[in-house]
Design goal:
The complex is a heterodimer of chains A (about 210) and B (about 170). With about 210 residues, chain A is α+β, with helices and mostly antiparallel strands. Chain A has one domain. Helices cover about 20% and strands about 30% of the residues of chain A. Chain A has four helices and 14 strands. In chain A, the strands form three sheets. Chain A has a seven-stranded antiparallel beta sheet, covered by helices on one side. Chain A has a five-stranded mixed beta sheet with strand order 6-12-13-1-10. A two-stranded antiparallel ribbon of chain A has the order 7-14. In chain A, a hairpin with a 2-residue loop joins β2 and β3. The longest helix of chain A is centred in the N-terminal third of the chain and has 13 residues. Chain A is elongated. With about 170 residues, chain B is mainly α. Chain B folds into two domains: about 80 residues, Rna Polymerase Sigma Factor, Chain: A; about 70 residues, Winged helix-like DNA-binding domain superfamily/Winged helix DNA-binding domain (Arc Repressor Mutant, subunit A), CATH 1.10.10. Chain B contains eight helices and no strands. In chain B, α1 crosses α4, α1 packs across α6 and α5 runs antiparallel to α8. The longest helix of chain B is centred in the N-terminal third of the chain and has 25 residues. The chains are: A alpha+beta (about 210), B mainly alpha (about 170). Chains A and B meet through α1 and α2 of A and α1, α2, α5, α6 and α8 of B.
């Protein structure tokens, strides 16, 4: 009889369990932190907004070039702020049209500053998801449109990320941003998705991603 | 806190450790496992209405955590490293039952064998449930379990030397 046969399968598994259980682990996180991270994941998600080519091609391009990194200084002409990564055009009716070229590196601070110049309070972050609890109600400040003005359905919160046409633009109406709230744009390099939504200016958390 | 939040919080508190231990059993690195399990629980909450109806929500979390880690590494073109943990020096059973030789053997097993062992040990799933969770046949689960346990047994019990080997 082989000595190995002296230990039953169950005994071997129990020995493995004892060793694994003896490994020191970090303290369990607070459930509220996990829920906040999950809540941010339920935000509306877009993939490929404004990138050149088809949505699939846009995602492929993103895997080569990082997003939300440095980038050249913006060029500010009347009503238009343009960088290689985004273009923000202020319309006569007070709305703003944002086109993101996700195959270029975008500096979140630059985009946030450009939005502020157009009267759009926003928090722009990379690789982190920001949310408020409770989440402010959606007032429809953001819409997605094709160049001809026809609307592109915005994904429901919690739905899978929606690849959008390469020539789609985001139209932002600052008049619809409720007092005490601001927009948030969170880009995740991990899955090349843009999350956006509304947060309470005085009460929000960022994390995860 | 809503009923749904309370339900998730209760699930999270009861499931965090077994899920984390199961993922550590597969990936080897406790810090990485913690990140992946936290992400998996966040995704569970994001899809709680679906996950709460899953036949084995803990298995959903473990599979999601493992898939998260796998995709992370695939995108960077690297192999999933094994045993890059910070444990005690190699040797037999130590304080608290930690046997680094056994753990090294565990993390040297093929990934599928580690998954089967992890689900059996920490989620206490039977062969049929493991098979359905991994999308493989019950016979395949038994084969992975048998081979994995046999490899671990060799590390637990010194191989007897025969006169012919001396």
């Amino acid at each position: 009889m082989n000595v190995h046969d002296e230990m039953s399968d169950d005994e071997v598994l129990r020995a493995a369990e004892r060793s694994l259980t003896a490994i020191p682990m970090a303290v369990r996180p607070d459930a509220r932190v996990i829920m906040a991270r999950g809540r941010a994941r339920r935000r509306r998600r877009l993939a490929g907004l404004g990138a050149a080519g088809t949505a699939a091609a846009a995602v492929a391009a993103l895997s080569v070039a990082g997003v939300f990194g440095g980038g050249p200084a913006p060029v500010n002409t009347t009503g238009t702020i343009r960088t290689t990564a985004f273009t923000l055009v202020k319309n006569a009716n007070g709305t703003a049209k944002l086109t993101l070229s996700l195959d270029q590196q975008i500096n979140p601070a630059t985009l946030q500053h450009a939005l502020a110049q157009d009267g759009i309070p926003a928090l722009v972050r990379i690789n982190t998801l920001c949310s408020s609890d409770p989440e402010p109600s959606d007032t429809g400040a953001i819409s997605i449109q094709l160049p001809n003005g026809s609307p592109v359905p915005i994904p429901r919160p919690g739905a899978a990320a929606t690849p959008v046409p390469h020539d789609a633009v985001m139209v932002i109406n600052p008049a619809k941003i409720a007092a005490g709230t601001e927009l948030t744009f969170n880009y995740l390099n991990d899955n090349h998705q843009l999350h956006f939504g509304v947060i309470d200016t005085s009460s929000y958390t960022c994390g995860g991603g | 806190m809503s009923n749904e939040q309370a339900e998730f919080a209760e699930f999270f508190q009861a499931s965090w450790e077994p899920c984390l231990r199961a993922v550590v059993a597969v990936v080897g690195s406790p810090p990485r496992a913690e990140d992946q399990v936290a992400e998996a629980f966040a995704r569970a909450w994001a899809s709680w209405r679906k996950v709460s109806r899953h036949p084995v929500p803990q298995a959903w979390v473990v599979r999601t955590a493992l898939n998260t880690g796998a995709s992370w590494w695939r995108r960077r073109g690297r192999e999933l490293p094994l045993a890059d943990h910070d444990l005690t020096a190699p040797g037999g059973p130590g304080p608290g039952g930690l046997d680094s030789t056994l753990l090294t053997a565990l993390w040297s097993l093929p990934a599928r064998q580690r998954e089967v062992i992890a689900l059996r040990i920490f989620l206490d799933l039977d062969t049929g449930t493991i098979a359905s969770q991994l999308g493989i046949e019950a016979g395949t689960v038994r084969m992975h379990l048998s081979r994995g346990v046999a490899a671990l047994r060799r590390e637990l019990t010194p191989t007897p030397t025969t006169e012919a080997e001396q």
